[in-house]
Design a protein that fits this description.
By secondary structure, the chain is an alpha/beta fold. The protein has 2 domains: 3-229 and 301-311, Alpha-Beta Complex (Spore Coat Polysaccharide Biosynthesis Protein SpsA, Chain A), CATH 3.90.550.10; 232-295. 48% of the residues lie in helices and 14% in strands. The chain is built from 10 helices and 8 strands.
């Protein structure tokens, strides 16, 4: 199969028929073999009924329904498991991403043997204060920390080689950091393509300002896991050893002064408490690294979701 199109959604019943019709028209025009995987992330409207109807009309349109809302990362992660296309395209369900971009993304990825292409919405129709400015700050910080030169990490319109999605795991708010996850997994052929951003036609945005706060916290997690996920002792052990040694040196200095001068006051000095605190913290950090090595970061339940039903999968 040439292409799998993955579309996470929540309460997008109005836009789904038009979106799926548009995708099918593009695919048929370019003679692509394809599937469309719609992931209903706990919708409270008639989205699932619409998905069932679309599947009856076109068996290449498939659906996954969550029992409750888990978030975009969970929706992508579950769909990644089931996707069988040679190239995977992710896009939003609100018609702000244009399906006409799919052929260009597909050929650019295949012709240049890339691992991942991220869309760049240079001109946006979002609110400047609540979305555009926070997004610019978010992208600047992510570029600096990850070393990946992309202008728009958060763009939902992306193209992936099949191998990439089978080797990355997304959860929390990490969907916007998939290029970073891909890089840490060894897929470094990452490019960017300018794409059209359309004004929202139906409904309202499901994302608030809190997504940027959660996003920055997840970026910190990704950077730590990427560097020390397999070797936490190198991080915690180093900090712990440094803290312990600082406390030890201060302690030896105080003990030496006490031996030299019997009237030297030991316990009522700030340096005494600094030494004690440093040694305790150093020991705790060292133990944290040791336990981290034993436990590892992988939780078998982290990506377990209650899937109510599937259509066509």
């Amino acid at each position: 199969m040439n292409i799998s199109v993955i579309i996470p959604l929540k309460d997008e019943a109005e836009s789904l028929p038009e979106l799926c019709s548009w995708i099918s028209r593009v695919m048929d025009t370019h003679n692509f073999s394809y599937e469309v995987i719609l992931v209903d992330d706990g919708s409270t409207d008639t989205s699932w009924s619409v998905i069932e109807q679309l599947h009856e009309e076109n068996s290449r349109i498939k659906g996954i329904k969550f029992k409750r809302n888990y978030g975009k990362s969970a929706a992508l992660n579950v769909a990644f498991r089931d996707a069988i296309g040679d190239v995977i395209i992710t896009m939003d369900a609100d018609l702000q991403d244009s399906p006409d971009e799919i052929p260009g993304l597909y050929h650019m990825l295949k012709d240049n043997r890339l691992d991942l292409i991220s869309g760049w919405k240079r001109k946006r129709f979002d609110n400047v204060l609540t979305k555009n400015l926070p997004s610019k700050l978010f992208n600047a910080v992510t570029r600096k920390m990850s070393g990946i030169k992309l202008n728009d990490f958060n763009c939902g319109l992306k193209a992936y080689d099949h191998n990439v999605i089978k080797h990355v795991e997304v959860y929390g708010e990490m969907h916007r950091y998939i290029p970073v996850l891909a890089k840490w997994a060894g897929f470094s052929k990452i490019a960017e393509k300018e794409v059209e951003h359309r004004a929202r036609k139906y409904g309202t945005s499901k994302f608030g300002i809190e997504r940027f706060v959660n996003g920055f916290l997840d970026l910190t997690t990704i950077m730590f896991i990427g560097k020390f996920g397999k070797k936490p002792m190198q991080f915690f052990g180093l900090l712990g050893s440094l803290a312990f040694m600082i406390g030890l040196v201060i302690s030896l200095y105080l003990i030496g002064n006490k031996v030299y001068d019997i009237h030297f006051s030991l316990t009522n000095r700030p340096s005494f408490f600094l030494a004690l605190t440093s040694m305790v913290i150093g020991t705790q950090l060292f133990l944290a690294g040791f336990i981290g090595e034993l436990v590892s970061r992988n939780s078998p339940e982290r990506n377990a979701y209650n899937i109510e039903c599937k259509k066509g999968i």
